[in-house]
Structures are given as C-alpha cells and as structure tokens.
Amino acid sequence: MTIVITAFERSPDGGKGLARDTRVRWALEEAGQPYEVRLVSFAAMKEPAHLRLHPFGQIPTYEEGDLALFETGSIVFHIAEQHPGLFPADADARARAITWMFAALNTVEPPILELAIAKFGEGDKPWTQERMPLVVERIRNRLKQLSARLGDAGWLDGEFSAGDLMMVSVLLRVKPSGILAEFPSLAAYVARGEARPAYQRAFAAQLAINAGEPK
Amino acid sequence: MTIVITAFERSPDGGKGLARDTRVRWALEEAGQPYEVRLVSFAAMKEPAHLRLHPFGQIPTYEEGDLALFETGSIVFHIAEQHPGLFPADADARARAITWMFAALNTVEPPILELAIAKFGEGDKPWTQERMPLVVERIRNRLKQLSARLGDAGWLDGEFSAGDLMMVSVLLRVKPSGILAEFPSLAAYVARGEARPAYQRAFAAQLAINAGEPK
Lengths: 215, 215
Prior knowledge:
The structure is a homodimer.
Chain A: E1 3-8, H1 21-30, E2 36-40, H2 42-45, H3 48-53, E3 61-64, E4 67-70, H4 72-82, H5 91-121, H6 128-150, H7 162-172, H8 184-195, H9 197-210
Parallel strand pairs in A: 1-2
Antiparallel strand pairs in A: 1-3, 3-4
Helix pairs in contact in A: 1-4, 1-7, 1-9, 5-6, 5-7, 7-8
C-alpha cells in the first residue's frame, strides 16, 4: 500500500529541515520505505478536509490504505513497529527506545517550543527581552541532564533507535539558537544523526520542495 | 514480578491527583495490576541513585524485574501493551489510540505546561499579568480543536483507551484554571474519565499519601 504523508507547501523555515515532516521522512528512509508527499497550504490546513486527517490542523499526517494517523511521535512509532531498523529486537531495549521517544517529545521539546513561541509569537512584546534568559535557562537545565545521561556514548541506549531519531530531531530545533553548541557532546550527537544517509535523504527531499522562490 | 513505581513523598498539589504518578496508577488499575510505591523526596530526586532511573530527576519511574522505565507516556504505553484493557485489539484502532497518547503529551499538554510555568515559575514577574491572556488563548485554541473532534462521542476513538487516559489526565491539569469549563463537552469527557472505578482507586491511593499534614 502506498504511504502518503503531508508537508507544508512552503515551510516557514525555508528548508532548514525543522518542519515535522522531516522526522517522518527520516523514519521512512531508515526503514527503507518509499512514500509520496501531498503538499498543503496554510489555508488548506484549516479546512475540514485536512482537519478530518489532523484535528489540530497541522502537518504531517500519514495515510496507508485505510489507516490515517497524525502526530509525529505516533507516525514514527508506527513506522518503527512495522519495519526493522528503528526498534531493537530485545523487548526491554525496545521499551527503553520508546521511553526516549516520549522523553524527547514531552520533556525536552516543551521548553524548546517555548523558546520558539517567545521569539516568533511574542517577539514584539515589551517583556520578551527581559524574559528570554528564563526561557533559555529552562532549556539549558534539560540539556545539562540529557548530556549527563548521554555521557560519551554514541546513542542514548545502545544502537541507534527511533528514540535517537526523535531526540536528534528535537535538538535540531535548538541548534540555530546557539544553545546546543554549549553542550559539545550533544552537538556531536546531533551531528551523528545528521550524518546518517537516511537523514541526508530526508533533508534533501524537504529542501527540494522548500528551497528557491515561493510558488 | 513486582511492579514498583516512584511518587513524590509529598506532592506539590497536596493530593489533587495532578502529579504524574496518578496517570501510571490509573493505567495499572485499568489493567488490574498490583504495584508498590516508593516515595521520593525532592532532594532524593536529584541524587545519583534516582537519576540513574530518571535522567531528568522527576517522578514517576517504573521498575519490573530488570526493566526500568521513566516518562509517563512510555510507562502507560508499556502497561497498555502488556495487559488487556487499554489498547483496542484491532491494529489500526490501536495505532490511533497511540496517536491520541502522543497528541495529549506533545500537542495539548505543552500550552498547559506553559500556564503552570507562567503561574508558578514566573508568577512574581512584572510581565506575567499582561502576558497571561496570550498563554490562556493558546490553550483555548487547542481545546477548541479537541472539542470539535470529540463532538458528542464518549471517547476520542471508539472505546476508552490509553489515549483517553492520557488526554483526560492532561486536561485535568487545566481544570483548576476554569478554562476547561468553557468547553462543556470536554468537561463532561474529563468527568467520564474521573468516574471510572480505576481512576477513583488511583486518585484515592495518591490522596492517602498526600492528604493531611506533611511528614
């Protein structure tokens, strides 16, 4: 059955790979699964046809025959469960990989989202400059803990897994701020993720859509 | 094998059931699994012994023989996968239940966390009063979308699932603010969750620890 995902017709990041379809593309590339992409405009994302697929009016979505999913975490989980390459075979190791997926999305990403909101949603507010150090400090606290756990290991728990895919994807969002570079072992961890051929293919595929002039 | 979870020695909410061990207790009660609780002080949560279990120094954790997990989402997922009662048998319906778990934790909870941070982490800051309506509006936007999807259904996708357990748990955090009550169908959805005998047992168990005078 053909896998169809949705992506921004034009990503707000101009092709830096930070839109969430890149996470799904990366997982599909790791799993060696071909896929098609349907591009969606910002206006179409709020229309009933898209809201039936994604109740929060976002991208990406995932369709495969009768199955329709939203939420990057859930889509990457589904891909990892259906195909080898993203979950370890051992049951306990698999449970720990899933733990890291949730840790990336529910513990590490929220303070990073907060920074994006402070910059792009409240950038013009009178309090933003004074408030920013607090927001940055909350990210630093998380990265300090993550860095302590990673130590000098290559990946978070043994071999590369969907947990690393999600954590690297979340950390990539904080790279442009310069905060990631304060934690050299995490920066190297992210660079290892970016160097994977599957990531490279996913990145190139989204760049091909987003680079150049807006349509 | 005995299941052991950790919880606050003394929850900051004084027993309102908003600490995250309640989510895990609820899942264990739905699955009919007995469990033991090890209480952890705020000081002990930052000690190496606890950080080995939970790299971000939080509760709950989950131990079962050699397996040690953290992150509520991952623990509830593990319980739902091991025991009947929290995931539908049909594969597509199960994938959708997992989607709602991730939606609760990565789409609905982040703006709710932001409100908690604005109140308890930045409550004394000069900008907080002026900024608060923005924070509240971001929650309202999400609840509007969630309410539209739920419609007049009892649960998010067919029978009660781990997706509902997580969504109800996340929405409970916004109930004290009064925002939930603006969405009567969501308030009724949360009340249906709270009325489940398994939730009642979980709530009572955490209350027994947190009620009364601090130790």
